[in-house]
Design brief:
Elements lengths: L8 E4 L21 H5 L4 H8 L4 E4 L5 H11 L14 H10 L5 H8 L4 E5 L4 H10 L4 E5 L8 H13 L1
Parallel strand pairs: 1-2, 1-3, 3-4
The structure holds magnesium ion.
Protein name: Secreted protein
Organism: Planobispora longispora
Length: 165
């Protein structure tokens, strides 16, 4: 350890992990409407997130809207929000070449070496490799299926990893 006494961060995406979208390719269509998506936002979800030993941070295109629209529905307080910087041309080219998610570089910068977990439906092995090479702390990039959202096994995996730090 390098002397970090702060709790690890958990970067939280909204569309996919908290608000599933699209259809499970193995099931028949259910017909998801925006209302039924928001109905998934329960206090139980907030409680499960709060129970994780970490500091929650919104990492989503919702930005401040996540605090306005999502947090109150699930009983979370106002959380820090990652603001997405305009990428430089050079970084944009590199990231595209590497196949990075557009969020990855910004999240590594935001973490500043602090250990973090990241929950997102857009994570791939390219992101894991890049983070391993560019982030000095521990990191868990946890992919969630966009049609399923955060499930029991995801919470279990996050809890296990965060407690083992
Ligand atoms: Mg997403």
């Amino acid at each position: 350890m390098t002397g970090h006494t702060e709790r690890p961060l958990l970067f939280l995406d909204v569309d996919g992990p908290l608000l599933p979208f699209g259809e499970d390719p193995h099931r028949t269509p259910r017909g998801t409407t925006p209302d039924s998506r928001l109905a998934r936002l329960t206090s139980e979800l907030g409680n499960r997130l709060t129970a994780l030993p970490c500091e929650l941070v919104w990492a989503t295109t919702w930005e401040e809207e996540a605090n306005a629209e999502i947090a109150p529905r699930i009983g979370l307080p106002r959380l820090p929000v990652v603001k997405w910087p305009e990428p430089t041309d050079q970084h944009e080219r590199e990231d595209r070449w590497f196949g990075l998610c557009w969020k990855t570089r910004a999240l590594v910068n935001w973490a500043g070496g602090r250990p973090f977990a990241w929950v997102d439906d857009e994570i791939t092995d390219a992101d894991r490799e890049w983070v391993a090479a560019h982030h000095s702390g521990r990191a868990l990039l946890h992919h969630v299926e966009s049609y399923q959202g955060l499930a029991d096994e995801d919470f279990a995996a996050l809890d296990r990893w965060l407690r083992a730090l």
